[in-house]
């Protein structure tokens, strides 16, 4: 029999909420892609835990304005500001950060979330998911960093939890989401952290019910792939954006700079790490590697012969 997961008691839950409130309450937050899906769920959780002001940067002007107005009506004050921004346009993101600074004075938390899945328009996918996320991350560092007058803060980069064996139909999307891990790992290095005081965390969500997921079978490079893609999706259990946002609040409380968190199948967040590349080398039975060093044009070149794999010589 599988051991049952222990349910937390009411007092433990109350303590957890209090601890999250300590981190979030009174903070100013910027969320990209906050007008729908995961970003909108993050927004609601920040409000629930007492954030001071929240700015949404999103390309969907209608939804962004509607959300800001709706929250103003229900709260009786302007808690949420919307700035119409295409994150793939660096100039627009720079302007949006300037406006946010003017509105909020300080930015404490940035959730770098805006992203698309559209393999048919893969140049746009790269522009939003990589250029857009890099722009947002750089500007977040610039505005929050301590060594140039900021107060430090938290940057959350939103990635995707995926098994590399299940990504055959999403080559470009997969590449963009892997890039975010590299970006986060670099920016969270103590080399930066000691100067900036900005904690950089990666949140990798598993399959989540948003319009991105619903539309995804129609956004593949070829229609022929659709049936296989849908079959792959059916292997996973889908979670709600609410659960991911709830998990993000816990991660803000316990996540250290450089940590990578997965939230999948509606469960509590767990931490993963990037393996040491030295441990990844493949070993074959009766493997032998012969290394020769030649000098060509005054430059030393190592020739590696791995006879068990190819029987060919290759340069390394
Ligand atoms: N849905 C999932 O299963 C899932 C899982 C893991 C990670 N993610 C990632 O989470 C993030 C949010 O995805 P989602 O599922 O909530 O998608 P979504 O489509 O529901 O929401 C994305 C939001 O980003 C906005 N947006 C799109 N392009 C933009 C641009 N150029 N500039 C500014 N805003 C833009 C959209 O208008 C929308 O409000 C993405 O980075 C996605 O890759 C999604």
UniProtKB/TrEMBL annotation:
Membrane-spanning residues: none
Source organism superkingdom: Eukaryota
InterPro entries documented for this protein: NAD(P)-bd_dom_sf (IPR036291), SDR_fam (IPR002347)
Record-level GO cellular component terms: cytoplasm
Keywords noted in UniProt: Oxidoreductase
MF terms (GO), sorted A to Z: oxidoreductase activity, acting on the CH-OH group of donors, NAD or NADP as acceptor
Pfam families noted in UniProt: adh_short (PF00106)
Family of the protein in this entry: Belongs to the short-chain dehydrogenases/reductases (SDR) family.
UniProt protein name: 15-hydroxyprostaglandin dehydrogenase [NAD+]
Organism phylogeny: Eukaryota, Metazoa, Ecdysozoa, Arthropoda, Hexapoda
């Amino acid at each position: 029999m599988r051991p049952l997961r222990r349910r937390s008691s009411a007092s433990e839950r109350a303590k957890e909420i209090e601890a999250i409130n300590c981190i979030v309450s009174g903070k100013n937050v910027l969320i990209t892609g906050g007008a729908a899906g995961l970003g909108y769920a993050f927004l609601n959780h920040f409000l629930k835990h007492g954030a001071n002001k929240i700015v949404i940067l999103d390309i969907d002007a209608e939804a962004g304005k509607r959300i800001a107005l709706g929250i103003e009506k229900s709260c009786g004050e302007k808690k949420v500001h919307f700035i119409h921004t295409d994150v793939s346009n660096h100039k627009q993101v720079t302007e949006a950060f300037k406006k946010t600074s003017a509105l909020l004075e300080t930015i404490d938390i940035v959730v770098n979330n805006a992203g698309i899945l559209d393999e048919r328009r893969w140049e746009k996918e790269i522009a939003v998911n990589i250029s857009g996320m890099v722009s947002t991350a750089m500007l977040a560092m610039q505005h929050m960093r301590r060594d140039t007058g900021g107060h430090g803060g938290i940057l959350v980069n939103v990635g995707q939890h995926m098994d590399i064996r299940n990504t055959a139909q999403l080559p470009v999307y997969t590449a963009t989401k892997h890039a975010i891990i590299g970006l986060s790992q670099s920016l969270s290095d103590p080399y930066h952290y000691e100067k900036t005081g900005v904690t950089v965390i990666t949140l990798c969500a598993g399959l989540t019910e948003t319009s991105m997921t619903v539309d995804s079978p129609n956004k593949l490079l070829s229609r022929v792939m659709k049936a296989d893609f849908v079959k792959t999706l059916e292997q996973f259990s889908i979670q709600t954006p609410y659960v991911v946002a709830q998990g993000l609040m816990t991660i803000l409380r316990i996540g250290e700079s450089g940590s990578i968190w997965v939230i999948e199948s509606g469960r509590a967040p767990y931490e993963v790490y990037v393996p040491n590349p030295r441990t990844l080398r493949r070993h074959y039975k009766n493997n032998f590697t012969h290394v020769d060093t030649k000098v060509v044009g005054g430059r030393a070149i190592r020739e590696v012969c791995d006879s068990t794999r190819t029987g060919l010589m290759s340069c390394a």
